[in-house]
Design brief:
The protein is mainly alpha-helical and 107 residues long. It is 79% helix and 0% strand.
């Protein structure tokens, strides 16, 4: 995992248990999964709009927001970025068609 992702993972894990009155991350966790998922959806939409608009800096900014909130979601579900990276590694070297066929067969 990249150094920045490791640092962010550690900070998010720490802030998950913080006081919701003083931590944005803790406040998201306190509000529950539906609030976190809504935020991920909003950030995904904003990322798509930025991409459609063609402003590269805005795409980077919105993608960072999307990744951040996706990491909050993973933590809320007691999952780690390493688990997602392991899945990507598992798929590495497979064509997209092979990967989809494997999913269809229960893999």
């Amino acid at each position: 995992m990249s150094e920045i992702l490791q640092q962010l993972d550690a900070v998010l894990r720490q802030r998950q248990a913080a006081d919701p009155a003083t931590s944005y991350v803790a406040s998201l966790h306190a509000k529950g999964l539906d609030t976190i998922l809504k935020k991920v959806g909003e950030e995904a939409a904003e990322t798509l709009i930025a991409a459609k608009g063609g402003d590269r800096d805005q795409v980077i900014y919105e993608t960072a927001d999307l990744w951040f909130h996706t990491l909050v979601m993973l933590h809320h579900l007691d999952l780690s970025p390493d688990q997602v990276l392991a899945e990507l590694e598992r798929r590495f070297g497979l064509s997209g068609l092979e990967e989809k066929a494997n999913r269809g067969s229960g893999s």
